[in-house]
Amino acid sequence: MFQLSQLRCFVAVTTELHFGRAAALLHMTQPPLTRQIQLLEHELGVRLLDRAGGSVRLTLAGRTFLREAEDILRRSEAAVLAARRALRADAGTVTVGFIPATSYALLPRLMDVARRQLPEVRLLLREMQTADQIEAIGAGTVELGIVRPFAQRGVAAARCLVREPFVVALPAGHALARRRTLPPAALENEPFVEYCPSESRYLYEVVAGRLRAEGVRPNTVHTLSHTHSILALVSAGMGIALVPRSAMGLRYRGVAYRPLDCEPALEVELHLAWRPHDRREVSDTLRDVLLQALAPPAGG
Description:
By secondary structure, the protein is α/β, with parallel strands linked by helices. The chain contains 9 helices and 11 strands. The chain has 3 domains: about 5-85, Winged helix-like DNA-binding domain superfamily/Winged helix DNA-binding domain (Arc Repressor Mutant, subunit A, Orthogonal Bundle); about 90-160 and about 270-295, 3-Layer(aba) Sandwich (D-Maltodextrin-Binding Protein, domain 2); about 160-265, 3-Layer(aba) Sandwich (D-Maltodextrin-Binding Protein, domain 2). The protein is about 40% helix and about 25% strand. The termini are far apart.
């Protein structure tokens, strides 16, 4: 099998079309260069170069092989760089899972932090629900995940990355939209669009549990899995809803938002999850950078 050094010799000769100049380019003498070309031709079983009258020309086989040789050399150099980057803590590729809700505000912030502080780290993004991310983290196919709080702590470790309040979303023409803030009691008997208890269990339990604790019984008219779908119904005048504040960035026409006036505040969390005891320097570095830049203070 031919060697990469032989390919470099061949490409140098085709670049210079002169053995002497190619030898100088490679910092070697001409006889060893000639010998490398001969060995390459012998290995391939074809003539790559015509040498006549002091000139050098590519044969048809040589022109065809040149394209492949240049591609092999490019890929070999890329492989070397990738291997070296793998040993660095500030370069490489990290697979990051995220739930759709993070695209409203958190994901752009996260990518900006990574781009500014770790410019040689490439993020491979995968949109997945929380349960799928935890499974992928356990399998090692996702290294970091942006998820809702979850129960499987043996599979993945996690820390709160974002904590944000709920706001009341209501049709802009609704009577309650004239008020600056709304207490939970204002939702009593109102047509209510809420999160689906099976598909969006965490958000459903946070909202429904708090309303029960407040003694509030809204009139649930629809249950949906995604915030943008809920806001679409609010925009259509089908009811009011409680949604995370970041959803205001979706800018649905005809939807007004009001702060929910309650103590303690009704909040929702996003966590950064990773596989415990699975040490990879570049993903550890990215995790630490993101937590330092974005996470709320411990106990805050």
